Amino acid sequence: MRGCSRYMGPLILMAAGVIFLIGGVSVGIFMTRAARQAAERATRLSPATVRDIERSAIGAEALVEGVIDARNPTHVRNFVAYVREEYRGIDTTNNREEWKEDERWTPPLLVQVTDGAVRIANDTYRIEEPPVQWQESDRLEWNGFSGEGTKRYRGFEAGNSVTTLGRIVDSLEGRAIEAEFIFGGTRSQYIAYQRATMSIAPIAGLIAGGIGTVMILGGVWYILRGG
């Protein structure tokens, strides 16, 4: 029994190493594949105009490149859409700030294009690389008793360049887009962002896999030397 407990530590280390190894490789492969598909998809689709959307079939894919229309109502400060995060103190495991999303405001929007405004009909789209950030205070505070912490916002304001991709739907106001995401930038910037992710993802996977390998070898070494 004593011998089993002596090897419990290295066995746990090796198990964690296996998780890191498999997870790192899997994440690297998945992220690379997803980024490649996203870049290829955006490259294949030309920016659609209002006229293009009106003439296209319901359910057809469409990419829209434009700016946030000034007619969109604001919700907090000048944000028309945002993700809010709350400061939750310092994560003692890695000595880093811990932030947790506690509110998301993604209403239907108008995006101004060359021949008018395209309507984003849904409120379920993702916010990717938003251009505007605002934090309510430079002083980071977290009160565990009240459950309140410093808030920060990331989102979009009128006039920001955006790219969105989704499918054409028929709404009460006419043809619109059911968007998968709204990206803060142009179509070419979105494609470049996805290609950069393709380059970074394998490196991140290799790092995680390398950590896992070291953990496994460390456990094996401990066992072979007899503890």
Low-pLDDT segments: none
Radius of gyration: 23 Å
Cα end-to-end separation:
15 Å
Mean pLDDT: 83
Provide a brief overview of the structure:
The chain has four helices and twelve strands, in the order αααββββββββββββα.
List keywords for this structure.
38% helix; 4 helices; alpha+beta; 4-stranded antiparallel β-sheet; 227 residues; 34% strand; 6-stranded mixed β-sheet
Characterization of the model:
The two termini are 15 Å apart. The strands form 3 sheets. Strands 5-4-1-11-12-6 form a 6-stranded mixed sheet. With 227 residues, it is α+β, with helices and mostly antiparallel strands. It is globular. It is built from 4 helices and 12 strands. It has helices spanning 2-6, 8-44, 50-55, 187-224; strands at residues 61-68, 81-91, 96-105, 109-113, 116-120, 126-128, 132-135, 142-143, 148-149, 151-156, 161-171, 174-183.
In terms of topology, how is this protein built?
Blueprint: H1 2-6, H2 8-44, H3 50-55, E1 61-68, E2 81-91, E3 96-105, E4 109-113, E5 116-120, E6 126-128, E7 132-135, E8 142-143, E9 148-149, E10 151-156, E11 161-171, E12 174-183, H4 187-224
Parallel strand pairs: 6-12
Antiparallel strand pairs: 1-4, 1-11, 2-3, 2-10, 4-5, 7-10, 8-9, 11-12
Helix pairs in contact: 2-4
